[in-house]
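Sequence, please.
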């Protein structure tokens, strides 16, 4: 097989120019200070948490720490484009710091450390955005050791927003990944993911009802 290097370089350069044009046009009037669908309807984002490794469990302090992967997905129509106009480019990767992101946090966390300073976000041409956030979390959770070492512990990781009520933003839970879709091919991770549940609660601080 003969590779024509000048032509290959030209195609690569042309694709790079098209990508730059796509980024410039897409983000030209984009303002990350405002959420998607502002003034139209609540933003619905999807979330999934997968525990990768249990680090520590302290029964006396009622704390659990682990490494976990948090997936967030939402749609921002302001960042949609027509692939036919950009050499059939259907997805792009950008730093998450350049995007509006759901302002959520773990309310029962003592310590949360991001493992990536500026995670990369995947944007599809329809405006769907996916961000993968690897994190270390040390949280408070009820631990009962009466049946140790034959016990099963259930850890609650509470996510909430101190800024946006459900009239502005709401969440749904993603389906747990199948084993062949997991980033880490470990059955333990898949089993933990399948035990995840999405619960709502009554926010008495802000007066927002979540059933």
């Amino acid at each position: 097989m003969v590779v024509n290097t000048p032509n290959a370089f030209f195609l690569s350069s042309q694709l790079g120019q098209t990508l730059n044009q796509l980024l410039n046009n897409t983000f030209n009037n984009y303002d990350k200070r405002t959420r998607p669908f502002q003034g139209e309807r609540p933003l619905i984002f999807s979330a999934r948490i997968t525990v990768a490794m249990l680090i520590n469990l302290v029964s006396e302090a009622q704390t659990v720490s682990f490494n976990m992967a948090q997936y967030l997905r939402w749609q921002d129509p302001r960042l949609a484009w027509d692939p036919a106009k950009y050499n059939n480019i259907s997805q792009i990767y950008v730093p998450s710091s350049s995007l509006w992101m759901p302002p959520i946090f773990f309310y029962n966390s003592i310590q949360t450390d991001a493992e990536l300073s500026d995670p990369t976000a995947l944007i599809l041409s329809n405006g769907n955005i996916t961000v993968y956030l690897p994190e270390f979390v040390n949280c408070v959770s009820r631990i009962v050791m009466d049946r140790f070492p034959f016990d099963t512990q259930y850890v609650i990781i509470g996510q909430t927003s101190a800024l946006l009520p459900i009239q502005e933003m709401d969440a749904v839970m993603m389906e747990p990944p199948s084993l062949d879709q997991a980033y880490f091919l470990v059955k333990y991770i898949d089993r933990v993911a399948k035990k995840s549940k999405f619960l709502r609660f009554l926010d008495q601080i802000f007066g927002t009802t979540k059933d």
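Residues 41-209 form a domain with the Acetylcholine Binding Protein; Chain: A, fold (CATH 2.70.170.10).
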